[in-house]
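Re-run with default settings, no changes from the original entry. Doing this only to confirm the output is reproducible before filing.
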Amino acid sequence: MAVLLGVDTGGTYTDAVLIRDEVDILASAKALTTREDLAIGVGNAVGEVLALSGIPAEQIVLASLSTTLATNALVEGQGGRVALIFIGFKARDVEVHGLADALKGDPCLVVAGGHTHAGGEAAALDEDAIIAFLETHRHDVSGFAVASQFATRNPAHELRAAALVAEITGRPVSASHQLSAKLNGPKRAMTAVLNARLIGMIDRLIGRAEGVLRDVGIVAPMMVVRGDGALISAAQARERPIETILSGPAASIVGARWLTGADLALVSDIGGTTTDVAVLRDGRPKIDPAGAQVGPYRTMVEAVAMRTTGLGGDSEVHFVAEGLQGGVTLGPRRVLPVSLVAVEAPEVVHEALDAQLRSTTPGEHDARFVRAVPGLRAEGLGPREAEVLARIGDNVQPMGAVLKTRREHGALKKLVDRGLVQMAGVTPSDASHVLRRVMEWDASAARKALLLFGRRRTGSGTVLSTWEDDVAQMIVDQLTHQTALALLETAFAEEEVAFGAAPEVLARHVLMQRGMAGHDGLVRLRTGLDVPVVGLGASAACYYPAVGARLDCQMILPEYAGVANAIGAVVGRITMRQSGVVTAPSDGVFRVHLVEGPRDFGDAEAAMAALEDVLRGQAEAEALAAGAEDIQVSVVRDVRTAGVEAREVFVEATVTVEAVGRPRVAEG
């Protein structure tokens, strides 16, 4: 019996699951994610799932991790200080292509060098300038990124610069051609910068996670989920952490397919912070051809095409005063549910809620709390931010007791944006406790918080509601509405027929909305989704039946929907892709662009065959290094030709080799 362990670190929960022989789920468990040290949550979830299953730790033959750490770090602007060596470009390219924003003031050297489209040297590499730059910054950055003009045609200058970095500084270096085989040097530079920024953070997470597994007796190899859903070794993830962005959402798609066998479906994964929607076609997730988008950054990383909406079980609920009825809207910011923070500090929370309920007028900060994130170093704070942080201290505090002036609102926002402070407020999770759909945390605190929320006055001067159950239903109905919009936007974006408007506009169009409500008059309207939806996430069973009814579609809620990410983390396959190009710089010359430099052939077929052999060897070697066995190789050639004087002329060919294998498990 082969027992596999899958772990997923989400925004609210860390999930663990044990699977036997990739067929049967033996046990699953959840633990709260410990943001200050994700490995603590990993250890808690793994310990719980082992206890529930009764399986000895030494029987686990493979462990795999999916994580939101890289994604969240890029979105929140976290990571190490890095330096960019930008070869063969102009200084203005740093500003024009968004590199300055990504660097955030970190050092950058624009230096002579680079190659032409055909792979010839455009200018000599200015090694003296690079050496001086490295000597200056060898001690004040955690890593270096190197990007050279047309490095995918000839990486010689990137390789030389990387060698100098290693020789002079000993710091990690990210070379752009090793992260993507595509053109667009500034975009490759962006990818290299973000990769360099993540190396230390992902290295620490993987090291701590491996240590936690060893502590409980698990010595099996550990894999990490890549952004396209494939598995890579922990060592490869440490070298190329940028590939783990969208790791968690990708794992959910793989898990959805394993749990349901669906070939064509929308997959909607609701977490604490976001709802991620993707399309399954022929049982496989679609890959974003433009590269993974994370926050403001468009990378060249292959990842699942995913539409992410700031909507989850822990989304902040906002009061809408406009109109006679008033109402609520959700997100995009995540806050701690009042029902959860009341478990952590029951006396503080209930005392504050009771005092607020005794007041005859609603307060601006009713049912809102703050707490400092433990274990994080607060560096570079202004005096106002430092004062607010000191006032919060180590305990949960009512927000009204912390903020003394209007100016301090901005200071608190900065502390939250930097991840030093967490806010608590009314969320859909609290509404679910009031409606008795979930009873994990403090339901009485949730009821008090929703009573306070309902006292706010609408445009007509009346209160929103005096009944907490009514407020709770408003919140859940709004979540249903916003989830339906997210699914419709994805569906319209994937439609083969153009409707002449953006998906966001089409999803909200009055005809679409009236059709979902079943309008009957002189015109009969019926609209919805024509494909099933697989609902995933711990709270999917609470919210998604109503979403399926609103969209008039089949809603599939697998038994283990709450741990689908952890399942996807361990049932995936190791997949390594290598791509290369053959160009035609002159008539009768076919140039293969290799790491060691261009190589010319007199025949197109011979050139493509030679490139295929090289790429096959690289892909198989990477798959073996990742721990794959039973490797299967496939090859795709994309040949571009042009009609010239009644004949087809070779322009360029891209050869892609894919090596796929099962993860090799521990023996004994």
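The longest strand covers residues 628-644. The chain is about 40% helix and 25% strand.
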